[in-house]
Amino acid sequence: MAATSSVRDRTRLEIVQQAMSLFQEKGYNATSLQDIATAAGCSKATVLYHFSDKTGVLVAVLEPSHVALSKLVAEASALPAAEAQELAIARFVELAVEFRGLISVLQDLFGSLGEMPEFSGLVAEGLRLTGLLAGGTGNQLELDVAAFAINGLLGECRHPGERTDAELHELCNTALRRLLRPPA
Question: What global pTM score does this model have?
């Protein structure tokens, strides 16, 4: 029984890995379930056995980044505003570099993510992160600057391979720190 479960797990993992590669290469909308199945070396029925639809595959692709973002937001939310902002800046830069391949996939979907109930948690965590980066003040200008900073960072991370991870980390860290000032 364990071998069967292991084969299922490996198949599911292969589907997720191939889907991520295809989503990055072709875009989410241009990738079909058949494309994913072919790349994973299985049938479309096998993909549908593991996932209800293409959105389900995307949820699985994004799950590690969503978990990491949720952990960051939870940790930062428990701190005083200045410490929370500092942690949010440092860890968000790390996450953006770590998950830079996913950012190109996400940016193509930002306009529609809010309409997809599967991503309501991810959208909510993004809004919480914006508040933390803004220093937790609730000041609309600071929230707008934080959103601007996030969008700029995500835009820069969107193109994997143009900068090394170290270069990207330094750029994003410097940019966020220059744009976001600690709460008074």
Answer: 0.86
